Amino acid sequence: MARPRPLSIDPLAEAKRQWLAHGWEDAADGMAVVTSIMRAQQLLLARVDAALRPFGVTFARYEVLRLLAFSRSGTLPLSSVVARLQVHATSVTSTAERLVRDGMVLREPHPHDGRAALLTLTDTGRDLVERATRALNTEVFASPGLSPEDAATLVGVVARLRKNAGDFTDPRPVPDPL
């Protein structure tokens, strides 16, 4: 897919100008924040999708595989995957079903809770997630389009936004291992 040509103006700056021209000064900065973050998400997701396309997985499927690979045993309760990925249970269940269908994950009953399920990474899933991680690291994460200083600033600012929105509380110095 060819990259689109850059626009001669920044449409988000034009949107802010329009907000101000229409007398919405109190909302103009917030509108610019929200639309800027949403556009940046679109741009980054396009890069992630391109890096993952050769592996036949979406970012949602990759996240489940990576989370399982990070765990000590390659197994986590479905409810833990939901909590850690901060995604609705229905979405994780659907994603897990596709991974099971493709032989990347096993879904088994929880040995101590008959209502719960365990997800276990298969050797095929582990191989794929390791190869996909190398591609993401090379093609996206190693060069996100910002200097290291800007990247650190952005992560800090977005973390404050997330914390203020109730996404998390002050974390312990080191998260508990999976």
What's the short story on this structure?
The protein has 178 residues and is mostly helical. It has helices at residues 11-21, 25-52, 59-70, 78-85, 89-101, 123-141, 148-164, and strands spanning 75-77, 105-109, 117-121.
Topology at a glance:
Blueprint: H1 11-21, H2 25-52, H3 59-70, E1 75-77, H4 78-85, H5 89-101, E2 105-109, E3 117-121, H6 123-141, H7 148-164
Antiparallel strand pairs: 1-3, 2-3
Helix pairs in contact: 1-2, 2-6, 3-5, 3-6
Count of discrete alpha- or pi-helical segments spanning 4 or more residues: 7
Fold-level CATH name of the domain at 29-144: Arc Repressor Mutant, subunit A
Mean pLDDT: 91
Q: CATH superfamily of the domain at 29-144, called what?
A: Winged helix-like DNA-binding domain superfamily/Winged helix DNA-binding domain
Q: How many DSSP-defined strands?
A: 3
Strand order in the largest sheet: 1-3-2
What does this structure look like?
The protein is mainly alpha-helical and 178 residues long. The protein has a domain of 116 residues: Arc Repressor Mutant, subunit A (Orthogonal Bundle), CATH 1.10.10. Helix content is 61%, strand content 7%. It contains seven helices and three strands. A three-stranded antiparallel beta sheet has the order 1-3-2. β2 and β3 form a beta hairpin. α2 packs across α6 and α3 crosses α6. It is globular and about 60 Å long.
